[in-house]
Specification:
CATH architecture of the largest domain: 3-Layer(aba) Sandwich
Number of domains: 2
Shape: globular
Number of helices: 12
Largest sheet: 9 strands, mixed
CATH superfamily of the largest domain: ANL, N-terminal domain
Family: Belongs to the phenylacetyl-CoA ligase family.
Enzyme class: ligase
Structural class: alpha/beta
Number of strands: 21
Strand content: 15-25%
Pathway: Aromatic compound metabolism; phenylacetate degradation
EC number: 6.2.1.30
Subunit structure: Monomer.
Radius of gyration: 22 Å
Strand order of the largest sheet: 4-3-5-6-7-8-9-14-13
Length: 432
């Protein structure tokens, strides 16, 4: 363990620490006009927080709130105290910026060190970071976490996959850090170069930045002959480091001494029963620059409190199964792209490379799923291809509850992404 005292703290002591830090964070939030106005209107302050359940009396913060406070209206410190500014890509609207003090950066690197060590990183290892560097939080957060552990970093950044593989062969890193979809792109490109992906030097992969399934984990591990670990974070809260898996891989351990996590029904905003899926709502307990009270992540996951074999005593979360704003409603059925991926990988011969196209040519929605299949499966026999399409379609109906038209496409014909993979093309807005 990186920080045994923090990671094995008895629950009663951890909750007392959370309560103390929540009160302090509410006091810090009062320096932000956005929060101060709401707290004053509700007559809330640190004195109002008598138990952790009182967090529910505090206001939510949303992505739209951040956009309305653009660029840095949620700062709780003077601009001169900022040590760094990161931000979102802005692909779904105006980018949102997040500020960090020097203290925030120290905490961030420590939290990344925790989950990296939990997932097998050692000081004598070398890690190749194939995340983007820049405004995106992934590259820098993990970079400094690796250095905190004492391991060496190869800051290759995202893209130029052939170059990634050349560097990997030259420098023999034991650890690969990127999105899960890019890990499969690396395996595909290795085969194109005449390399055996399983012979690459990497032993461990730490993957995040996009939702992925257990089936995709198995695919990555099989193709690259590694252990693949999941981690979770988001720039609005701190970046990677909110949670990560240990060697037992029974869920991602949440760093509860720094984050208070709720799991709520996204419609009623009431807590869901333990173990049931809900939207994660996170309060950053120790952020100095931007307190972030009850941030609605839009990410759907489950929370678990049962003991983990590793000995850590923290709350754990499942992998993210989807986002409320990524959820598709198809003829009244709620569908997440991850369900389509799960269905595809249940059928032998398919790959995790797919594209979901939704249209409304008349009054009803139609779904077409383009699926890449392995080269050895591709055939000019129409009956074989039709039978495979039908198997995939049945599996999608079983998992997601919808009927979809399946189009088999040749390997490498669907666009690859070095960052978050784009899985859905929703054309319904063009015909409404």
């Amino acid at each position: 363990m990186w920080d045994r005292a923090a990671e094995t703290l008895p629950r009663a002591e951890r909750e007392a620490l959370q309560l103390e830090r929540l009160r302090a964070q509410v006091e810090r939030a009062r320096r932000v006009p956005f929060y101060r106005d709401i707290l004053n209107h509700r007559e809330l302050g640190p004195h109002s927080i008598r138990s952790l359940d009182d967090v529910r009396r505090l206001p939510f913060t949303t992505k739209d709130d951040m956009r309305r406070q653009h660029p840095l209206g949620l700062l709780a410190v003077p601009r001169k105290e900022l040590a760094r500014i990161h931000g979102s890509s802005g692909t779904t609207g105006k980018p949102t910026f997040v500020g960090y003090t020097a203290g925030d950066l120290q905490i961030w690197s420590d939290l990344c060190a925790r989950f990296l060590v939990a997932g097998g990183l050692r000081p004598e290892y070398t890690a190749q970071v194939a995340f983007g560097y820049g405004l995106f939080t992934g590259g820098f957060g993990l970079h400094y976490g690796i250095e905190k552990v004492g391991a060496a970093v190869i800051p290759v950044a995202a893209g130029n996959t052939r170059r990634q593989l050349e560097i990997m062969r030259d420098l023999d890193p034991e650890v690969l850090i990127c999105t899960p979809s890019y890990a499969l792109t690396i395996a595909d490109t290795a085969r194109e170069m005449g390399l055996e992906p399983r012979a690459l030097p990497i032993r461990i992969g730490h993957f995040g930045g996009e939702p992925w399934t257990e089936d995709m984990r198995r695919e990555i591990e099989e193709q690259l002959d590694i252990q693949a670990f999941n981690n979770y974070g988001l720039s609005e809260i701190i970046g990677p480091g909110v949670s990560g898996e240990c060697m037992a891989r029974t869920g991602m351990h949440i760093q509860e001494d720094h984050f208070l996590v709720e799991c709520l029904d996204p419609e009623t905003l009431e807590p869901v029963p333990e173990g049931e899926p809900g939207e994660l709502v996170i309060t950053a307990l120790t952020r100095e620059a931007m307190p972030m009270i009850r941030y609605r992540t839009r990410d759907i996951a489950r929370l678990y409190r049962d003991p983990c074999p590793c000995g850590r005593t923290t709350l754990r979360m499942s992998r993210v199964t989807g986002r409320t704003d990524d959820m598709l409603i198809i003829r009244g059925v709620n569908v997440f792209p991850s369900q389509i991926e799960e269905a595809l990988l249940r059928v032998e011969g398919t790959t995790p490379h797919y594209l979901i196209e939704v249209s409304r040519p008349g009054t009803l929605d139609e779904v077409h799923v383009k699926v890449e299949i392995h080269p050895e499966i591709f055939s000019d026999r129409m009956d074989r291809m039709q039978a495979l399409c039908e198997r995939i379609s049945r599996e999608i109906q079983t998992v997601a509850g919808i009927r979809a038209h399946v189009d088999l496409v040749e390997p490498r014909s669907i666009e690859r992404f070095v960052g978050k993979a784009k899985r859905v093309l929703d054309k319904r807005g063009l015909t409404d």
